[in-house]
Amino acid sequence: MIKIKDLCTSYDGERVLHGVSAEFPEGKISVLIGPNGCGKSTTVKSILRLVPEYTGDISIDGKPLEDIDQKELARKIAYVSQSRNVPDISVYNMVMHGRYPYLSYPRRYRKEDHEAVRSALRMAGLEDLSDKKLENLSGGQRQKAYMAMALAQDTDVIIMDEPTTFLDVKNQFEMMDHAKKLTEMGKTIIMILHDMEAVLHYADHVILMKDGKDVLSGGAEEVLRSKELEEVFGIHTGFYEAEDDLHIYLKS
Fold this sequence. Notes:
Layout: E1 2-11, E2 14-24, E3 29-33, H1 40-47, E4 53-60, E5 63-64, H2 70-76, E6 77-80, H3 91-96, H4 111-124, H5 139-152, E7 157-161, H6 169-184, E8 188-192, H7 196-202, E9 205-210, E10 213-218, H8 220-225, H9 227-233, E11 236-242, E12 245-251
Parallel strand pairs: 3-8, 3-9, 6-7, 7-8
Antiparallel strand pairs: 1-2, 1-4, 4-5, 9-10, 11-12
Helix pairs in contact: 4-5
């Protein structure tokens, strides 16, 4: 389990997070929600040690983050970021980057590395596209390639920063269904999402944030039905059932 306590961070001396505390349970989908600029990405980047200045406690499986070296961290957590460059390489070679934490110098790919890549491509549904250049893929196919790279990294935790951004509806559903299947395999998923309907249907645990602080955490329905949600976003929400399924909508 990943735990953070009293996390404060700064960029160039400017405070971004103000004492955030949260837990991300194993084998579940945890989702951070909140307005733009509230500190969601900074929170997950702190777990990945991508934030230069922070105080507070971050632990992974009970081990303090400062006692985990970068290679060990890369074997524990994979990261699918929101914005990425598109390198001029094939899908197969891109996914192979996920094996870097397991390679010694000089980097020589082993049989198990190629097996891990082929397995990740199968899981992502990209076997037929493995020789294609990344730049020639659609947005949805590219997102699957980055997900395959995370799968090849073979970590217990995968962090995804707005994984459905720029995807069409079909690919959004596929991405979220895939994340759910990963938890059934024992993976822990941490996401940043803005789609409240997706949060309601896929999240096991939700952390609501505002102004660099955690406001409320709990089950998806509990958090989305709370008055805190309406206050944080300045909206009014309602719920209705259709075909035995709960849905959320904005009220005027």
